[in-house]
Amino acid sequence: MNLYYLKSFENYLKLECQLSENTIEAYLRDLKKLNEFLIITSYPETIKDIKEKDILDFLNYLNENFSIASASQARIISSIKQFYSFLIFENEIDQNPAELIESPKQSRKLPDVLSFEEIENILNNIDLSNEAGVRNRAILETLYSSGLRVSELINLKISAVDFNLSLVKVIGKGNKERLVPIGNDALKFISMYKNNYRNHHELNSQNADILFLNLRGKPISRIAIFQIIQDLCEKTGIKKSVSPHTFRHSFATHLLENGADLRSIQEMLGHASITTTEIYTHVESVLLKQTLELFHPAFTKSLES
Questions:
Q1: How far does Cα 142 stand from its chain's mean position?
Q2: Of the candidates 195, 196, 197, 218, which has an alpha carbon nearest to the alpha carbon of residue 206?
Q3: Does residue 216 have an active-site annotation?
Q4: Element containing residue 171 per DSSP (H, E)
Q5: 102 or 28, which is more confident?
Q6: Out of 3.40.50.300, 1.10.150.130, 1.10.760.10, 3.40.50.620, which CATH number does the structure's domain 5-89 have?
Q7: Given 75, 81, 135, 248, which residue is catalytic?
Q8: Is 173 a known active-site residue?
Q9: Is 200 a catalytic residue?
């Protein structure tokens, strides 16, 4: 396999498909794994000679040696299919050898969700006597009140926050822009952080408009936010598996519980398809079942007998 095409493929994913950087990086890694396999096993050297069987052998090799999860296998198949679609687009080949390869069926795991009380406990355990604390409170208030992805949060710009209309302009997956409401508490702590702490940092032009910074005046990382949340959950005594994405899940679930429609939630989350948002109906179903079991006489009677 000639890796000469990878740079062109990368540009194709950015410009034509408008995929996120994380997705593009994953696709390129997958193709490099395929290339390594072809070299090790002396399979066809040119892309045009690769057949469906060669790709299936590669997938079997991964399963036997690395026990990859079905989600990872699905992504790898998607990477390969996309790559060969690109080659057809470039008139390098006539047929996609991965076209008929099916992705494994994936069970849709219900996301962990924090209750409103648990979120309140986490927020109330933040020490507001220093820069880190005020910034962390602003970060978590923003995650919960707007349902942002962590990648959207770390790239959020000051100029994207409309304090008068209580909206933030978010650049999501595929470089798509959306407007999302933001809560009053989030705006309050953003103002406190911006006016009392952030303005004391000497910033270069690249970071001047980035809202959330580390204590060295550089954009805060997703790993740092993950660690902040882990430390607060430990301090609060919450045993659930909590990440920045948990606040996004909680945002959507609490909206659904309080009567918001799926279409509105889809718009706020920036989901391209309503089917992605529909996972929250499963969360709601679990909660409804729990409510029935606790309060409906048909359930409570069977428990007592």
A1: 16
A2: 218
A3: no
A4: strand 167-171
A5: 28
A6: 1.10.150.130
A7: 248
A8: yes
A9: no
Here the tokens at position 174 are: 């595929």
Instruction: Indicate which residue of 149, 194, 198, 249 is catalytic.
Output: 149
The pLDDT of residue 267 is: 82
Total-model pTM: 0.60
Residue tagged active-site, from 14, 178, 218, 245: 245
Confidence (pLDDT) at 39 = 81
- The structural domains of the chain, with segments of one domain joined by +, span 5-89, 116-293
For the domain bounded by 116-293, which CATH number is listed?
1.10.443.10
For residues 51 and 303, the model is more confident at: 51
Distances, alpha carbon 190 to alpha carbons 58, 199, 243, 250, in Å: 49, 12, 21, 21
pLDDT score of 303: 45
Q: Is 105 tagged catalytic?
A: no
Residue 248 known to be catalytic: yes
Asked if the model's pLDDT at residue 3 lies above 70, the reply is no
User: Is 280 considered catalytic here?
Assistant: yes
Identify the active-site residue in 14, 157, 169, 173: 173
Token pair recorded at residue 40: 């090790």
Residue keyed to tokens 């540009």: 11
Phi-psi region of 65 (alpha: psi -120 to 50; beta: other; left: phi over 0): alpha
**Which of 80, 120, 86 is closest to 101 using CA atoms?**
80
Percentage above 90 pLDDT, the chain: 40
Q: Residue 117 pLDDT more than 50?
A: yes
Q: Which of 12, 27, 197, 280 is catalytic?
A: 280
Average pLDDT of span 247-272: 84
